Amino acid sequence: GEDVEQSLFLSVREGDSSVINCTYTDSSSTYLYWYKQEPGAGLQLLTYIFSNMDMKQDQRLTVLLNKKDKHLSLRIADTQTGDSAIYFCAETDSGTYKYIFGTGTRLKVLA
Amino acid sequence: DTAVSQTPKYLVTQMGNDKSIKCEQNLGHDTMYWYKQDSKKFLKIMFSYNNKELIINETVPNRFSPKSPDKAHLNLHINSLELGDSAVYFCASRPSGSGELFFGEGSRLTVL
Hints:
The structure holds 2 protein chains of 2 kinds. By secondary structure, chain A is mainly beta. Helix content of chain A is about 0%, strand content about 55%. In chain B, the strands form 2 sheets. In chain B, strands 2, 4, 5, 6, 9, 10 and 11 form a 7-stranded mixed β-sheet that branches. In chain B, strand 4 and strand 5 form a beta hairpin. The interface between A and B is medium-sized, with 23 and 21 residues.
């Protein structure tokens, strides 16, 4: 199947870390992505990881990939109110770049 | 300065009507996409064009017809609109050799 699953909601306090999880199904995926969607806007790429990597860090963002379990996570350190948005994981190959998006996680950051 | 622009941003119409949504990108990208986002925020690919050629065509009713007059434009025409077509439609583009998608702001279609 092509379902990429995420938990629907996450609520954290400002300054805490947020961890958003994603389970994908296609083991042949080459790239895995995290996109952010703010209200009334399109998606914006936050970060991505190659399938042969285990971890990638980019400022406050840390991506972990467990290829055996097909599990991807995004950790946001020192979460701010501006991080409140919907976060989508996505997988694709490097041929067709036919993205399969996750179901989206709505992150709410409480002041 | 807008990289991927869609028009109209909002569209309210009656069932059975025909409508079009237009998309233009000024990024020089070769590949463009249409995605549909439903009320639960699920995002599904509909079509993709590479240099005016259709390369991805998902299981979409043939009431939906994309048209790419040139590689900077990808329009979506919908015939005989149904209630279930109500959604936000996103256009996106992608440069060759990169996986990053650049999204427009979306066109919210409401069918009454």
